[in-house]
Design the sequence.
């Protein structure tokens, strides 16, 4: 799909974004000397995200899946405005972020909020819940000193917490409750979209169900969009409208959820789906994808997946497959697609 | 050394482990009993704080203050571990009984190379030469499907990926070919692809060597593929214990039913997930009867007494109102 025509309606539209870590400023004379005599090495360059297009429409739930180190969290942080990509463009409301003035940029930032994996690490242990939830709203003028208490109470209620608990500290809550505080904090600035980075991964099954229900309720009530980053494909299948699969910094497949789970095209997606442990499988034969996740410091040439791919061909080692449409709303980056009929769209 | 073929590898009888905290006494493991046959895999399932890990630690004899094992028996190949002097217990630990932890860095020493740690473990329990010990280490790494084991032996733990570290930690646990492995969520922190690799290696091992295993996990779907039996823990007690098929296909305890029903795979896509009302109980203020009663839709006045273990529909159950699900689980 070409992002151009629908770009204006997307909440966040990432175009060919790339993120390289470790490429600092040019080394000074001392560093150069140390490197020369072998006492220092240049920091390795990591291509965490490598030319990714991703747009999230209002009210849409997009799942972002992949193994550790595939760049899904980095991409989420770029979408939330916490990281500035080293290349590519971030469009907010169809306008490039760089072209906005200070006030517009602030407003754009408020529209996308994050919910983190670890509710223990993402809340300041020295602040009361009322301050954690109310501070940003107050600063941005969404409420005033007189109204803050009621405002905070409303946010907590919406996240399923008893407002009477707002004067407590984070350590006085359970893991599930803390995750609700994190959600209330994100909601307090009235975002249009939440980036959830493994937001239910640390929770027990029964608590996970409660938080997932909360996400679905908020979507219905507020029309929130989500970028839902997770390694749990079962959760993604349940919650999302569309799924984007990443491998070593690149998108390898993107499709509506039902289609992706029913007809995965990319060999990596197929392997990933085959490995979800399912409760219906007893004394299962676990068949693993061969090999390790390669290092993003030195990714394999051509298609990054070729060393682990059961269907790799000679050209996979040299030529990077492009992501292109293979059916309506279904894109895949694999040389195998060339053999099939001419691409739709 | 190993008992005759009839003796089960492990029999746990009325195990009681209490934590003595300033706030009061916490019965973390409460009257837990089960039997594990040779070559069998028991999935010990429960949520945070249900006592599943402490059950594992208690069997290993690794409970630290303020916790104390205060009752019950742990018979390993017929011998009561509780009655053994610490020296003899130590000679079993890491040798005949091994434990694998969730975080491999809890096993690995970050400042020693892999070979140093592995050779040390071999020499702790067997009289072999340094070269033989190294050879055993190499074989253990290869057994876990670790590529180029020669090079990995010379690596430090930080030079390995998370999945590789966990495989090294498991290889160390396997060095002496233990009869019993207690695995405490060893794949929880890993990617599905790496998890599948480790599960497949563990499965092969159990089949080929007849090793017995306790697989502690909160993830029912992992346990489903691996275990022969499942024991579900809630607030320190085993509330349901039966074969995998019994427990997962026809759960009788309301808590087990709630757990299974709350999985996304048991619900239609995009619909609200069924959830267990309420929160996990505070062990300091447990209700006098069944700990699950405050969250249970079937609770009655009978539930103010503690339900004893009884045999219902061929599985062990602690519930006054067992019954099949009224709603179907997809």
Sequence:
């Amino acid at each position: 799909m070409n992002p151009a025509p629908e770009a204006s309606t997307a909440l966040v539209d990432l175009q060919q974004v790339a993120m390289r870590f470790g490429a600092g400023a040019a080394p000074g004379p001392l560093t150069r000397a140390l490197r020369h005599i072998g006492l220092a090495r240049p920091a390795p360059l990591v291509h965490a995200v490598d030319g990714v297009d991703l747009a999230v429409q209002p009210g849409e739930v997009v799942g972002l899946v992949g193994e550790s180190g595939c760049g899904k969290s980095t991409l989420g942080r770029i979408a939330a405005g916490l990281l500035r990509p080293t290349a590519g463009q971030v469009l907010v409301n169809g306008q490039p972020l760089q072209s906005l003035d200070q006030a517009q940029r602030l407003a754009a930032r408020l529209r996308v909020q994050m919910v983190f994996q670890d509710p223990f690490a993402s809340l300041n242990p020295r602040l009361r819940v009322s301050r954690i939830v109310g501070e940003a709203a107050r600063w941005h003028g969404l409420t005033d000193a007189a109204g803050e208490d009621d405002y905070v109470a409303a946010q907590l209620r919406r996240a399923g917490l008893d407002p009477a608990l707002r004067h407590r500290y984070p350590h006085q809550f359970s893991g599930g409750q803390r995750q609700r505080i994190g959600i209330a904090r994100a909601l307090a600035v009235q975002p249009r979209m939440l980036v959830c980075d493994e937001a239910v991964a640390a929770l027990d099954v029964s608590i996970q169900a409660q938080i997932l229900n909360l996400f679905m309720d908020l979507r219905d009530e507020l029309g929130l969009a989500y970028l839902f980053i997770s390694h749990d494909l079962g959760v993604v299948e349940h919650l999302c409208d569309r799924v984007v699969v990443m491998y070593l910094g690149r998108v390898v497949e993107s499709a509506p959820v039902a289609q992706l789970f029913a007809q995965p095209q990319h060999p990596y997606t197929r392997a990933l789906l085959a490995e979800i442990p399912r409760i219906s499988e007893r004394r299962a034969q676990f068949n693993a994808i061969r090999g390790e996740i390669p290092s993003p410091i030195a990714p394999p040439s051509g298609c990054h997946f070729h060393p682990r791919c059961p269907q790799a061909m000679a050209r996979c080692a040299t030529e990077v497959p492009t992501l292109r449409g293979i059916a309506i709303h279904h894109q895949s980056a694999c040389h195998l697609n060339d053999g099939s009929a001419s691409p739709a769209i | 050394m190993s008992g005759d073929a009839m003796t089960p590898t492990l029999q746990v009888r009325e195990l009681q482990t209490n934590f003595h905290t300033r706030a009061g006494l916490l019965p973390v493991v409460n009257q837990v009993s089960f039997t594990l046959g040779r070559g069998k895999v028991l999935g010990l399932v429960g949520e945070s704080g249900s006592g599943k890990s402490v059950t594992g630690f208690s069997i290993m004899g690794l409970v630290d203050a303020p916790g104390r094992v205060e009752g019950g028996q742990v018979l390993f190949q017929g011998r009561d571990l509780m009655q053994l002097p610490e020296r003899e217990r130590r000679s079993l630990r890491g040798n005949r009984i091994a434990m694998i932890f969730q975080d491999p860095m809890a096993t690995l020493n970050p400042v020693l190379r892999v070979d140093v740690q592995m050779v040390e473990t071999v020499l702790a329990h067997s009289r072999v030469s340094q070269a033989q010990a190294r050879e055993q280490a190499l074989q253990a790494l290869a057994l876990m499907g670790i590529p180029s084991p020669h090079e990995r032996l010379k690596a430090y733990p930080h030079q390995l990926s998370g999945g590789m570290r966990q495989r090294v930690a498991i290889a160390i646990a396997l060095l002496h070919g233990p009869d019993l492995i207690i695995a405490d969520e060893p794949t929880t922190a890993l990617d599905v692809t790496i998890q599948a690799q480790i599960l497949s290696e563990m499965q092969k091992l159990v089949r080929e060597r007849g090793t017995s295993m306790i697989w502690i996990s909160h993830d029912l779907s992992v346990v489903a593929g691996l275990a022969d039996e499942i024991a579900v823990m809630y607030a320190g007690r085993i509330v349901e214990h039966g074969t995998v098929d019994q427990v997962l296909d026809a759960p009788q305890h309301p808590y087990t039913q709630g757990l299974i029903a709350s999985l996304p795979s048991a619900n239609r896509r995009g619909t609200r997930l069924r959830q267990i009302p309420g929160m996990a109980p505070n062990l300091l203020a447990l209700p006098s009867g069944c700990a699950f009663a405050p969250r249970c839709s079937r609770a009655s006045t009978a539930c103010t007494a503690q339900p004893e273990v009884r045999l219902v529909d061929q599985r062990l159950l602690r519930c006054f109102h067992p019954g099949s699900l009224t709603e179907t689980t997809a």
In short: Residues 14 and 28 of chain B are 13 Å apart (CA to CA). The radius of gyration of chain B is 21 Å. DSSP finds ten helices and twelve strands in chain B.
